[in-house]
């Protein structure tokens, strides 16, 4: 998802659905106030609480089997030294 966002959506000021699109909107509104909020940060700040709520509501077995949770956790572990 990050390559299309960085290469297509952000430069053309397009938005997509979901938290990713909302993160792009937050970025452009923040620029009007002189703030530089990266898309990845606002996307993470929107998604992490949803996963925490899902952990308690749906149970840890369901959340742990979710492919986006495991792939996101692996990406974060691999990219952490570069952040």
Name a few traits of the molecule:
single chain; 73% helix; mainly alpha; elongated; 0% strand; 83 residues
SSE blueprint:
Blueprint: H1 2-9, H2 18-32, H3 39-58, H4 60-64, H5 67-79
Helix pairs in contact: 2-3
- Principal-axes geometry comes out as elongated
Which percent band covers the strand fraction? under 5%
Query: In sequence order, what are the helices and strands, one letter per element?
Result: HHHHH
Low-confidence stretches: none
Report the structural category: mainly alpha
Account of the protein in words:
It is a single chain. The chain has 83 residues and is mainly α. The chain is 73% helix and 0% strand. The chain contains 5 helices and no strands. It has helices at 2-9, 18-32, 39-58, 60-64, 67-79. It starts with a helix and ends with a helix. The model has no long low-confidence stretch (mean pLDDT 76).
